[in-house]
Every structure is written in structure tokens, then in C-alpha cells.
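#struct-help
A.M.: can someone run this one for me? Single chain, 127 residues.
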Amino acid sequence: MPLREKDYLRRPDKYFHKIYNAGKADIGSMEKVHDEFGTPIGSSEFVSQMKMWYRNLGVTASDVFYAQSDGTDIEKKIALRGYLDISTKWHVKMKNPKGVEKTYAIYRVYYNPKDDETELNLVGVDS
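D.P.: on it. C-alpha cells below:
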């Protein structure tokens, strides 16, 4: 059955699906390192909670505006499939196209019910 233009205009999401293939995001928390006596040492290590495929989103002007009011700069915005219970205290590790791994802090988590995906605004962390 051929696709008619009026069918597409009614329900475009029925014919086109979102593809999460920009890369794998390693999402987790930064935990303090303890010595053998249980005393916290000044450094921290990344503890992975989940790994998921993501797709890149464009950073909107309103995202930049709200982040600038808090004094931060958003570097990246990604979407993960489904509703996820993610805290803004967590971090995300991703590889860029050159293969270099970078760590981001989660600035904002938003569930988009229309597309059934969780959006993350990410801020770069100096490692």
C-alpha cells in the first residue's frame, strides 16, 4: 500500500522512528575513594550504573538561557529511550568521534512523554 501524503501529515511518528545510534553513554556516579581503614581519600572514581545508546539533540536557546542564569555552560544535549530514573548528581562518560573519552556532569533531566525519551543537558567536567 503506497504512502499517501495525507496519511503522513496525520501521524508522521507512525512512519518514522527515532534511532539512538550516536554512541553509548556510560551513566553513573562519582564515589569517593576510601583507604583500607575507611577514611575517604581526596580523589573519586566513576561507578557505572547503566550503559545506553543515545542520540544527539540540539541545544535550544531556552536551555542556554536557564544554564547561563546559574552560571554554567551546556556543552551537549542527548536523548535516551524511555523513562529513566536519573539523578542530576550523576555523571556521563562518552567517547567523541576521535575516540577520546570525556566526562560530563548532568545539569538537567527531562522526560519527554511525546517521544518517550529522557533528555539530558550535559556540562563538561575538567578531569
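A.M.: thanks! The radius of gyration is 18 Å.
D.P.: also worth noting: The chain has a mean pLDDT of 86.
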